[in-house]
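Q: What residues go here?
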């Protein structure tokens, strides 16, 4: 006599009642609308309130062009430095064991816990006229503060965790098997890095660079401390927005702000695309 086997029922996902689901969705959408969508709408509305001519005139003003150039220059410098540091730090942390590894990870996360204003003050204490290196710098005619180097240093400090923190878990998950296989087949360390490691982490690099660039172009606190607010020379786009707004030049202020808002929207779109590529890469590695 054949024994009957009891088949376990398929697992069913329990969901909240429809009323609760719609209530939570409404709260989430309402919150995003008030704190994200409406501010963006206001920025673009005010920027074009006097027409496209006034908008273009505000962006073509010499002071605005100087702020845009400075912002782009500082972003390129800080992203480049953070890219090199992030890849090296992630490689060392993910692939090797060494004393002080936990401490290094803590240092990488330090800018997340320090106010940007405080980080700017640190550079003032180091490179200011009364700072530790200020006298030597003045004697040799080197200017760090109230110039591009100081702005680039402050921006690099507040943004350097982004690339490293994106690559560390990605490289830890991938392990060292492929690199070890390449080296065992006779590939040099540099060739292994370029042909094996970089292709495996390319989407993570792009993702980290994207976030780093967005933060660099929008940084205000640290840059405000070290820039000196010299009109037409050391004002980045966020600083110029505040100056123009305080001077009641609302159209010009919101025109510059609209560029930053547009950057945020582009960053969001590219971020979504890169996240899909990262998920596809992780799925392929799991398979």
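A:
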């Amino acid at each position: 006599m054949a024994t009957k086997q009891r088949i376990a029922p398929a697992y069913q996902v329990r969901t909240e009642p429809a009323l609760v689901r719609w209530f939570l969705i409404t709260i989430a959408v309402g919150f995003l609308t008030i704190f994200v969508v409406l501010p963006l709408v206001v920025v673009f509305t005010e920027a074009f309130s006097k027409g496209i001519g006034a908008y273009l005139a505000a962006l073509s003003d010499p002071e605005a062009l100087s702020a845009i150039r400075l912002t782009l220059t500082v972003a390129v410098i800080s992203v480049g430095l953070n890219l090199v540091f992030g890849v090296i730090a992630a490689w060392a942390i993910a692939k090797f064991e060494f004393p002080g590894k936990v401490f290094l990870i803590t240092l990488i996360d330090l800018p997340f816990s320090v106010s940007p204003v405080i980080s700017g003050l640190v550079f003032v204490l180091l490179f200011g006229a009364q700072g530790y290196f200020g006298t030597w710098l003045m004697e040799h005619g080197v200017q760090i503060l109230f110039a591009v180097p100081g702005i680039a240093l402050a921006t690099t400090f507040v943004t350097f965790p982004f690339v490293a923190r994106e690559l560390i878990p990605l490289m830890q998950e991938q392990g060292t098997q492929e690199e070890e296989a390449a080296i065992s087949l006779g590939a040099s360390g540099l060739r292994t890095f370029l042909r094996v490691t970089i292709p495996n982490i390319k989407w993570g690099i792009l993702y980290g660079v994207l976030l780093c660039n967005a933060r660099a172009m929008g940084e205000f606190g640290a840059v405000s401390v070290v820039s000196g607010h010299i009109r037409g020379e050391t004002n980045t786009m966020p600083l110029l927005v505040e100056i123009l707004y305080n001077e009641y030049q609302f159209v010009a202020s919101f025109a510059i702000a609209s560029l930053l808002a547009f950057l945020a929207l582009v960053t969001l779109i590219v971020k979504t695309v890169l996240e899909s590529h990262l998920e596809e890469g992780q799925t392929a590695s799991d398979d």
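A: Context that may help when evaluating the design: The radius of gyration is 25 Å. The chain is about 75% helix and 0% strand.
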